[in-house]
Amino acid sequence: MKRVIITGPTGAIGMALIEYLSERNIEIIAVLRNDSKREKQIVESENIVKVNCSLAEIKELPQRVQEAVKRKNWDLEQLVDTFYHFAWDGTVGDHRNNMYLQNLNVQYALDAVDVAARLGCKVFIGAGSQAEYGRYMGKLNAEVPVFPENGYGMAKLCAGQMTRIYCEQKGLKHIWVRILSVYGPYDGTNTMIMCMINKMLRRERVSCTKAEQIWDYLYSKDAAKAMYLLGDRGVGGKIYCLGNGASRPLKEYIEVIRSIVNPEAEIGYGDIEYAPKQVMYLCADIRELVRDTGYSSTYTFEMGIKETVKMIQEGER
Question: pTM higher than 0.70 for the full model?
Answer without folding.
Answer: yes
